[in-house]
Write the structure tokens for this entry.
Amino acid sequence: MVVPEWIWLIFIFAFGCCIGSFLNVVIYRLPRDMSLIRPPSSCPACGRHIHFYDNIPLVSWLLLGAKCRYCKAPISPRYFVIELLTGSVFTGLFLLYFVVGLRHFEINGALGLSAFVEGGWFIYLVFIILLAALIAASAIDLELWVIPLSICWFATAAGVIGSGMGVYIIEPSVIRGYALLPSASATTASLAAGAAIGLVISLVLLTTGLIKRSYETDDVSCDLGDERQETSDERRINHRLEVCREILFLLPIIVCSLAAFWISRESPPIRTWWVNFSQQPVIAGLLGSLWGYFVGCGVVWATRIFGTLGFGKEAMGLGDVHLMGAVGAVIGPALVVVAFFIAPFFGLAWAGFHAFFRKTRQIPYGPFLSLGVFTVMILHDRIFNLLLTIFY
């Protein structure tokens, strides 16, 4: 029996709202180093446990009049907004991909909802994991000017694992043909493998103390962003010196990546072996996702380094670096670069408003990066066609 579209949409919206309810827990607890599991949900004002009937997404907030049942303390509208936003984003992506067909792909001869059943659900699952991570990271960034790196690492893991496992669910030729998930060529696979080796070397050097961590603090779980800029100015930190430490960290990654690329091209026996090995669907998926991760990190990190060297103040935060790395691991290297350059257009109006009315030029950039990512996910086909027209 074919399930009607409206039932799918209702289910996806309800599912998204439930995920949004969990994201509210993540948004409140994660930056405060609290467990996401224990204790159960309770009122921040009176501490009373919130029963399940007072924790129904959207409905309970409305029925309670945005107040605690017991102490009548106000409940932030953020809870309602995050649940509604998550449900709407999940539903919108499903609608555009599998009902409207804004992104065209065919799986086993099936289109639309049939393609979803035939394996499109896996692509959708990986994408909504990324979107959920972006919503949580953006909300935390807006409130506290921090991006917990654990959110970025979770989304990165979803991208890498999803790109490797996807070939067991959808034909590799379909994944490559429609660019459903990252998949590396032999060339980009060599760059990704070399960069991964270089990253391990850099982490070892960092752990042993042979290279120093920039802006070293006792708590490295979050990107301190612009709040740290203010305190660092007061302490007269040499920002250019600090960013040079980051360049030292990146050098092994760059050198190893270029070395792997050169070896894979200049040695015929190695080149033949590498092509056969790297183009196995699982390996191509894993390395394609890794290359997307490195490109996503690289484009933001380069901006951070050159901006800091040029202006003498810390430009962008390391949380933004990890966030775009996670994006690249899911949507691939080309689109993550496009998303990065789209993001400033979303930030212009916000920056203008704050500069004019609130007399500040500092803005959290995570939400605008997220909007750029969502845009390229929606306009995937048109952007890819434009890139093909420009470069081929």
Residues 218-232 have pLDDT under 50 and may be disordered. The chain has two domains: 5-144, 162-391. The beta strands are 147-148, 222-223. The first strand starts at residue 147 and ends at 148.
